[in-house]
Amino acid sequence: MPGRPSLAGRSLLVSRPAGRMGGGGSALRVCADHRGGINWLSLSPDGQRLLTGSEDGTARLWSTADGQCCALLQGHESYVTFCQLEDEAAFTCSADHTIRKWDVRTGQCLQVFRGHTSIVNRILVANNQLFSSSYDRTARAWSVDGGQVSQEFRGHRNCVLTLAYSAPWDLPGAPCAEEVGGLLVTGSTDGTAKVWQVASGCCHQTLRGHTGAVLCLVLDTPSHTAFTGSTDTTIRAWDILSGEQLRVFREHQGSVICLELVNQHVYSGSADRTVKCWLADTGECVRTFAAHRHSVSALKYHAGTLFTGSGDARARAFDAQSGALQRVFRGHAFVINCIQSSAPWALPFWLHHWVREQETDP
């Protein structure tokens, strides 16, 4: 299977949730059937299945009950970059420029979405539409059932990394909300984010202010606010209807790699080895989570606990309110790139991603 060299390990750890006491976490299961590093994972809405996408060009479906592989999804011609699992179908995207839809019961490929001309970075299934972003500088909207492109979003001057969607019913009071078909927000290495009208493909707003690549974004749909994180070390808040920059969050000393928005708090993971918690409506930094020995590459909030994944090959659990470190989870060899929490059991899953070889502290 063609692809880039993978120095990541090939295992997925299923670990116990953090308790009240500190100490090390223990792995309940290790899922190690992939023959290349795992790039992403996605849980089904009911928490009973897990989808992983790998450097080996395949995706796998797993039972969260026993860690057994339920289906092997084969067909991509290069590594799988991202995946999303829905109730009836799984979706994967790849460096082979395509997106695939799979039957979760049989593992059969149901649809191949062709049109991008470079690596597909991210996909998002929402409102019976499939959205994608690519190194070809475009984002696209597709019919989930037909596999045809329904809209192309052109205007970024470099690759499109991240995206988020706000449905028409999330835009009460917005002029012509139904007519525009909702809004798609994209972030790019050209230093901008853009807001697009899904129905027409027109650029509604360009959000300018960052001086580096936009690596991550999250939406607060009730307030029509987007939060973007960048290599310029800042987070910025924007009104996606007017395009106005509302606030700048400035205390990080390295690239902002990941964001999580929970209960009007923004959590940001950075290359400066910290996570910070900010008040979304004021931009005030109220808490810093230290203890990482490398960049913070993944965040997941669950039931008062903040889980973090880092380039030091450790996952950590913090009390989100006090900032106290509860547990450190060891087992991976390289950077942890994604964390998911399986409701209602609250078992965290994490994985690591392809990286250049690096040393990690013991």
Short description:
The protein is an all-beta fold and 362 residues long.
Counting DSSP H or I runs of 4 or more residues, the number of helices is 1
Q: Could you say what the CATH architecture of the domain at 278-342 is?
A: Beta Barrel
What is the number of strand segments?
33
Report the CATH topology name of the domain at 278-342: Thrombin, subunit H
* Rg for CA atoms: 19 Å
Label the overall shape: globular
Which band does the percent of strand residues land in? over 45%
- Overall pLDDT score: 87
Q: Decide which structural class fits the backbone.
A: mainly beta
Summarize the biggest pleated sheet.
Answer: 5 strands, mixed
> Which CATH class of the domain at 278-342?
Mainly Beta
Q: What fraction, in percent, of the residue positions are helical?
A: under 10%
Termini gap:
33 Å
Give the uncertain stretches in residue-range form. 1-9, 18-22, 352-362
The spatial strand order of the largest sheet comes to 2-31-30-29-28
What does this molecule look like?
It contains one helix and 33 strands. It is mainly β and 362 residues long. It has a domain at 278-342: Thrombin, subunit H (Beta Barrel), CATH 2.40.10. The chain has a five-stranded mixed beta sheet with strand order 2-31-30-29-28, with no helix packed on it. The radius of gyration is 19 Å and the shape is globular. The relative contact order is 0.13.
Q: What characteristics describe this protein?
A:
about 0% helix; about 50% strand; disordered N terminus; 1 helix; four-stranded antiparallel β-sheet; Thrombin, subunit H; about 350 residues; disordered C terminus; mainly beta
